[in-house]
Design brief:
Blueprint lengths: L1 H35 L2 H21 L1 H5 L8 H24 L1 H4 L1 H24 L1 H28 L5 H22 L7 H11 L2
Helix pairs in contact: 1-2, 2-4, 4-6, 4-7, 6-7, 7-8, 8-9
Length: 203
């Protein structure tokens, strides 16, 4: 029994570090936005908060500490948080890399992916939550890979900001692929596949 409580405490400490790290990043970038007025910082904060909310629905902490009186809200919040994670992340990528100027073809592909992410909301009423969230997970992986590829193209064109973007996006993509693959049944349920996206998000 003591081993169980020790392991549970370690797991909860890990979640505390993860969620705390994301919230600190969001607040830090909001402070930078308030001082510099660069919309990129605001977009990044919004994307981080959407990711935090989505992850809280997966881990159960959102229900435990947030909407504990309304467990039926979890599926709806999970889907809309995923939509926010995808769309805000792509919007940040578009602005941070200035894709319209540097890689116009990839710019419009990213814009199209944002549109697809919004389509998940009405889609759930047609195909059900389970199918919509699985499609959302696949779209998240595809969007991440395409955004990374756009960043690599910007890097090849010597866009300075692309250096930092590609480094961070690579870790997030690998983590997202592992986590989405686990949810879709493509990868076994292990510590690495379960926590891949969380580790990548902290990058």
């Amino acid at each position: 029994q003591s081993t169980y409580y020790t392991r549970s405490a370690a797991i909860e400490s890990g979640f505390g570090f993860f969620f705390g790290g994301l919230i600190v990043m969001a607040i830090f970038n909001l402070v930078l936005f308030a001082s510099i007025r660069d919309p990129n910082y605001l977009l990044y904060s919004a994307a981080v908060l959407a990711t935090t909310l989505f992850q809280s629905t997966l881990s159960g902490h959102g229900l435990q500490y947030g909407w504990f009186n309304h467990p039926d809200w979890t599926n709806t919040i999970s889907l809309y948080a995923l939509i926010g994670t995808i769309s805000l992340g792509l919007w940040f990528s578009i602005r941070f890399l200035d894709t319209k100027t540097n890689v116009p073809v990839w710019h419009w592909i990213l814009v199209g992916l944002i549109g697809l992410s919004f389509s998940l909301a009405p889609l759930q009423w047609l195909v059900g939550y389970s199918t919509a969230i699985r499609l959302g997970a696949m779209l998240s992986v595809i969007s991440g890979i395409i955004a990374l590829y756009a960043g690599i193209w910007c890097l090849r064109k010597s866009v300075y900001s692309a250096k930092f973007y590609v480094l961070a996006r690579t870790g997030f993509c690998i983590g997202s692929i592992l986590t989405a693959g686990r949810q879709l049944g493509l990868f076994p349920d292990t510590f690495i596949t379960e926590n891949g996206m969380r580790r990548g998000a902290l990058l």
